[in-house]
Structure formats: C-alpha cells, structure tokens
Amino acid sequence: MQLSTHTTPSGFLLPSIHSAHPFFTEQPNTATQCTFDEHWTRLILSYARYRHLFILRVEDAEVAGGDWDEILRNERINRRILPNYLASLISKLVSRNLAFYEPPKQTRSVVVLWRLPEEWADVLHSWATATGQLNSILTFYEITDPPVPSPLSGIPVSLLRRAITILTRSGRAQVIGVADGEGVRLLASGK
User: Which residues fall within 8 angstroms of residue 6, CB to CB, at 6 or more apart?
Assistant: First the structure.
C-alpha cells in the first residue's frame, strides 16, 4: 500500500506515516524509533486538540470504537498500536511535560496537554472576561460544565487547578472555599 494521508470519519486528516505498517510497533533502530515517537507525539496532541480530548489511557489501545480509535488503529492496513507501545509513548509525553498522570501515582492514564497550563490559564481568564464573570465566584463545576459550551467544557479539574494556580500567582485569580467544594474568583488584572 502506498503511504497516503487519510481523512477519518470525524474529519481529522491523518498523516501519511499513519499508513506505514512499522509505525504501529516499537522499532529496534533508535533513530527510527525517535522519528516515530516524534510523529506519535504530534499526532496525539493534534488529534486531542481536534477532538477536544483530555484523557488518554493505555486501555484505549485495546478498545475498538473508543475516542482514540481513529489514530490508535488503522483498519485499512489491519494495524493497531499495542498497549505496551502506547504505555511507552505515554511515558515519553509525561517526560516532555506534554501530559501528566491522572490520577497521580499510576502510569496507565494521563491528561494530554494539547494546550499547556499557561495557555489554559489565558483561555480561562479570556472566557471569564468575555462572559462578564470577572469578580464573580465560580465553582469548578460551573467552569468545566457551563450551560453554554465553551473552550473549557470538559476540562479535567486537575488541569483546571493548574491553570488557576498560574492565575493566582499572577494576581488574576483567588481560590475561594464554597459550600460544595472549591471555587475561584477571576480578577481583572494582577494586584
């Protein structure tokens, strides 16, 4: 089969390397493996951004029809990434600060950082500004599951906390205790 790009049912354009049989297995040649790792990293991050996905699990390599199926499998060439290889890629994403283990103290599930926490902090502050919610106390639930979908819809609380921490350090947010957990007050500018 000739290597070619392919558009998935969701509309995501897969790179031509996704049509290569060896792409789905770990390679004995270090240089080849480094190249594949770089391609997988770009593919995972761009697909996560495209589909607005946050959580990647080793088990996703085994689940047909899952959120990540379009990139972890290629039915056209009868290939799929094996769980051990995906675990290795996940470890590399974490070592490059492009993901973090969630929950902590395990190595099978990560939050994929298709935007860095600093970028999420800016998104959060811009969203609060655009929706007129500066100086209002918002629960984490109101941010992650707003009545009107936003760029923050579905963001994991652990990633939201990192973004809020960045805003707090710059004086653009205060963490507030509220009746049903934690909340945040987003401020117009640093103090």
Answer: 13, 14, 18, 19, 76
Across the chain, mean pLDDT equals 94
Residues sharing a CB contact under 8 Å with residue 174, sequence separation 6 or more, in sequence order? 168, 184, 185, 187
Q: Are 121 and 164 in contact (CB under 8 A)?
A: yes
Nearest to 85 by CA among 132, 22, 171: 22
Compute the distance between CA of residue 89 and CA of residue 44 in angstroms, rounded to an integer.
10
Closest to 133 measured CA to CA, from 141, 123, 125, 121: 125
Local structure of 146: helix, strand or coil: coil
Given a cut of 50, the residues of the chain with pLDDT beneath it are none
Q: Rounded to two decimals, what is the model's pTM?
A: 0.92
For 84-130, write each residue's pLDDT tens digit.
Answer: 999 999 999 999 999 999 999 999 999 999 999 999 999 999 999 99
124 contacts: CB under 8 Å, gap ≥ 6:
143, 152, 160, 163, 164, 167, 186
Amino acid, res. 14: L
Upper half-sphere CA count for residue 86 (Cβ side, 13 Å): 21
Q: Do 112 and 54 contact (CB within 8 A), yes or no?
A: yes
